[in-house]
Amino acid sequence: MSLRENLNVVFVGHVDHGKSTLIGRLLYDTKALPDGAIEKVKKISEEEGKKFEYAFLLDAFEEEQRQGITIDITMIQFFTKRRDYVIIDAPGHKEFLKNMISGAASAEAAILVVDAKEGIQEQSKRHGYILSLLGIKKVYVAVNKMDLVDYSEERYNEIVTQFNEFLGNLNIHPESYIPISAFLGENVAKKSEKMSWYKGKSILDTMDGIEKDKGIEKKPLRFPIQDIYKFDNRRIIAGRIESGSLKKGDEVVFYPSLKTTKVKSVEFWQDKDKTDEVSAKMSVGITVEDEFYNKRGEIICHKDSGITVSNSFNANVFWMGKEPFLKGKKYKLKIATQEIEIEIEKIKKVIDAATLQEITGADHINKNDVAEIVIKSQQPICFDAFGDNEALGRFVIIDEFNTSGGGIILGSAEVSKKERETKRLVTKEDRKNKFKELGKLIAINGDNKETNISFAIKLEKKLFDLGQKVYYLDSKEYEKIADILRENGITVIVANREKLSEAVEIIVDEAGKISDNILNII
Ligand code: GDP
């Protein structure tokens, strides 16, 4: 039996725009519901004098799953021929978005549901913003309740334009828009005949067409330690590999302690699971050669794996705590298995997610606000920028015992290279004053590359003998060094680089001799 692929999808959108209905309808159309469920729910609705809602099916479905206790009830699953789907954070759950923010469940794609009649509303925008914050790139917009606007192509186009404008500002470019009626099942599991003007796919076909991101096992290793177990005098380091892969004999570094050792064994419970190599998304246990003290929260990486260890970082946060997120107060930060006391060092700006209005100079962040901040800690924190590695690039903030916020790491807050440059004591200007003019740039070009190079080398010698400051840069070094040399008044010679602005170009013929008259020109 081959392993079935599974895809995590999140449904977001303004309240009452039809998320639950769409999910209920998907469960119904893919026959994920237990036999007779829909009849049962219809009957109950009738008896209670209520209009039937697909959303009721979700409750029935959950009830069923809860009894089975096999599946985490915050997730709803259904499957198609292609694969299994896990719907994360289905609406109706109180903790809407919390799971997503905290990364307890990470969505690979999002379906943003918008009511065709009402159009874009506050939460449509807020959720759009959060998707961008979470770096979810695969966004699909379901334009729902098309039945209420007579399946009008014109109205659909209006919504598409509205959304494109707002989401474009957030750098989200939806993969597609799908006009649907969740309630009537139009364009949900099969193409609607009522909207023949729409040439795209149904919701289900769209979902089946989503390609999963590949290659997480090819990224650098990130193995956060969850626990250490002792078994007959061996210390087994256990955790889930977040990215990359690991095998017996690998040299590994424990961050932030920087202790280095080798992997002695990859543990297994049953003989059939025996393997010497493990990779991303697997929960594993390993032993290492040097049994020094290690603990939960440390991150195991390979050498030079690029992880950052720092006391501060720049981040985008989303706050959902009852109490505001305050400057000067201590909070607990969780990244992978690390738990560290932190505080806000600086609030760069607070953004009203619905209007995208920016407020600077704030000293706290209110519930539902998004902000760009700098976080600092006494203890070193190991992390990646979210764009490089999601698992070590997202965090949660705990206020007392509540998950009150979360966000993504943009990068280290230590002075960037560019900022350092401006703090240099010798400026471009100083050099100019001292050396009066830039060194010349001489480009040696001609049909024969070899001849150009040997000409350049001879020219360097000639000018050098004439007492000039000169340097021949071969092409690999050029980008880095030419400006520096010239700023210091040194003539730079390069070969085989055409169309360089500022260069005195010398076209060399096959003979490639240096004539003294060239020296005069230079
Ligand atoms: P949610 O808050 O986004 O989960 O919204 P619901 O799924 O609970 O839907 C809100 C209301 O809109 C319910 O009364 C639904 O029956 C209704 N609704 C949902 N989809 C459609 C649709 O395609 N057409 C019509 N006419 N009503 C719909």
UniProtKB/TrEMBL annotation:
GO molecular function, one term: GTP binding
Enzyme Commission numbers on file: 2.7.7.4
Record flagged with keyword NAD: no
GO BP of this protein: sulfur compound metabolic process
Coiled-coil segments: none
Any matching Pfam family: GTP_EFTU
Entry-linked NCBIfam families: CysN (TIGR02034), small_GTP (TIGR00231)
Keywords (A to Z) from UniProt: ATP-binding, GTP-binding, Nucleotide-binding, Nucleotidyltransferase, Transferase
This protein's name: sulfate adenylyltransferase
